[in-house]
Design goal:
With about 140 residues, this protein is an all-alpha fold. The protein contains 7 helices and 2 strands; from the N terminus they run αααααααββ. A two-stranded antiparallel ribbon has the order 1-2. β1 and β2 form a beta hairpin. About 20% of the residues are buried.
Length: about 140
């Protein structure tokens, strides 16, 4: 149930965005640029939704810009440096065209994405000193 509430509030937050930001987010050019990055990365099926989902979370203030790289790494299950490189592509090719409007009209400073710091992965947090979930090894 909490996930549904988050989805509804994100949808409400999206609807509250200025029209020009909503138009940009749903435009053919933005969709094409996201598809281009997905194709270049070889993302398939559910992983193709990661980048647009994170962009939506970012512009609806559901994700802090400084957390973008870590979330990207977690969702795609890739290293921080690879995620940082992809985040730079997203910033340069997708977000840059609306950067000023996002900062002025939605309170999102996309330049802060660059200041993301490596944090321990939630996935890595399940590994204990004696193996996965504390089970003993051979």
């Amino acid at each position: 149930m909490p996930e549904q509430q988050t989805t509804l509030s994100m949808a409400d937050t999206f609807q509250a965005l200025p029209e020009h930001i909503k138009d940009w987010a749903s435009s053919d050019s933005t969709t094409f640029l996201i598809a281009e990055i997905n194709n270049r990365l070889g993302l398939k099926e559910g992983r193709r939704r990661v980048i647009p989902s994170l962009i939506l979370r970012l512009i609806t203030l559901n994700l802090e810009p400084q957390d973008f790289i870590n979330e990207l790494a977690n969702e795609l299950r890739i290293g921080f440096q690879a995620a940082k490189s992809i985040a730079e592509d997203i910033e340069n090719h997708i977000l840059r065209s609306i950067e000023n409007e996002l900062r002025r009209d939605a309170g999102v400073d996309v330049k802060l994405i660059r200041f993301g710091q490596l944090r321990p992965s939630k996935i890595l947090g399940t590994f204990g000193p004696s193996g996965i979930l504390g089970t003993s090894g051979p």
